[in-house]
Each structure stands twice: as structure tokens, then as C-alpha cells.
Design brief:
Elements: H1 3-13, H2 20-49, H3 55-85, H4 91-94, H5 114-127, H6 131-150, H7 156-180, H8 182-197
Helix pairs in contact: 2-3, 2-5, 2-6, 3-5, 3-7, 3-8, 5-6, 5-7, 6-7
Length: 198
């Protein structure tokens, strides 16, 4: 066990259980914010597709959405495979007096954080094609990471590794997307669909 990681965990997790408002915010960040992030990306792409004057932008959002969904899925799968090689129990398993303010996760593996990996994969994927929206999602991903530590299910190093896992898959999917010209393909598709409707 890395001492500074445990101390950092305590400094964040010891804030749990003191304020109902702070606890509610922490639980939302840890559990539901990632869902809101994906929903925001899908909604933004849908809105762009419905605006005839922004077909190019719609293609960018649609491509980023597909890349982000794949990157998030690969992050979760990669984390599961990695945890089979290097098992690290969650804080409430290995430490005493942990403020666990959510129900216990389905698996006892902590390293790396699946939620953080998926959130950062989504944020970095969007950041590579849409800077303002990507920065907003990056802030949300950081909130997801801190939330996972706050509620007692991850150490800080778990979520930091999740950042790097997410960045890795975002870069991989971005590279694949560029190589297969996914944005150009979607632009042509949206334009052809618009022509058929007129």
C-alpha cells in the first residue's frame, strides 16, 4: 500500500458524512455524472443533425460520439482485463473506518477506476475535435474521479490511472477515426440524406 495514496484518500473521504448537501453532490458525481456526460454528447449531436445549416458540425459531433462510446467501452473492458493481472482491493475492503456512502460495487477490484477511465475517454475524445465542449467534459470527468474517491470506492491513484487509460483510448480512437475518414464519411451521409428529404 502506498502511504501517500492512502493519506490522500483519507483527506478526501473524511469529508463524507459531514454534510447532506456535500454527500449528495459526491454521490451524483460518483454515480450519475458520467451518464449525464454521455447524454449531453448524444443530445448535442442530435441537435446538430437536425439543423440543416450545420451538417459539417453534426458530422464532427456524430463521429466524436461514436469514438467516445467505443473508447469508453474499451476503457471498461481494458480495466477489467488489467484487474485480472494486478488486483488491488477497494479502500473499504483494505482499510478501517472508510466512509462508504454508496452501496458496494459489484466487483472488489479498485485499480484502475472504470468510471474515471470511461469519463476521461469521453472527455478527451470530444476535446480532440471540440475544444470548448471538451474542456467542459474534462471538468466533469475530474468531478467523476474526485467523486469516486469521496464516496469511498477508489484511491486517488486509481482515478489518476483512469485519466491515463481514458487518454490512451481517446488517442487510439481519434487516430483510427482520422485514418478511416469517419468525419468525411458522415458529412457526405448527412448531405445525401438532406438531399433525399428535399
Amino acid at each position: 500500500m502506498i502511504r501517500f495514496d492512502t493519506e490522500a484518500f483519507r483527506s478526501i473521504n473524511n469529508l463524507a458524512g459531514r454534510s447532506p448537501v456535500l454527500d449528495a453532490a459526491g454521490i451524483f458525481c460518483a454515480r450519475w455524472l458520467i451518464v449525464a456526460m454521455f447524454a449531453a454528447v448524444v443530445l448535442r449531436a442530435v441537435i446538430a443533425v437536425r439543423r440543416p445549416e450545420s451538417r459539417g458540425l453534426a458530422a464532427v459531433f456524430a463521429a466524436a460520439e461514436v469514438r467516445a462510446l467505443i473508447a469508453g467501452a474499451l476503457a471498461f473492458l481494458g480495466n477489467w482485463l488489467f484487474s485480472l493481472l494486478i488486483f488491488r482491493p477497494r479502500p473499504y475492503v483494505s482499510l478501517m473506518d472508510v466512509h462508504l456512502i454508496v452501496s458496494k460495487p459489484l466487483t472488489p477490484q479498485a485499480f484502475p477506476s472504470g468510471h474515471s477511465s470511461a469519463a476521461f475517454a469521453l472527455a478527451f475524445t470530444i476535446l480532440l475535435v471540440d475544444l470548448p465542449f471538451g474542456l467542459l467534459l474534462l471538468v466533469c470527468a475530474c468531478a467523476v474521479a474526485v467523486g469516486r474517491v469521496f464516496v469511498g470506492v477508489h484511491y486517488p491513484l486509481d482515478v489518476v490511472m483512469g485519466l491515463f487509460v481514458g487518454l490512451f483510448w481517446a488517442l487510439v480512437l481519434h487516430g483510427v477515426g482520422v485514418r478511416v475518414h469517419d468525419i468525411e464519411f458522415l458529412t457526405r451521409y448527412l448531405k445525401s440524406r438532406a438531399v433525399r428529404k428535399t
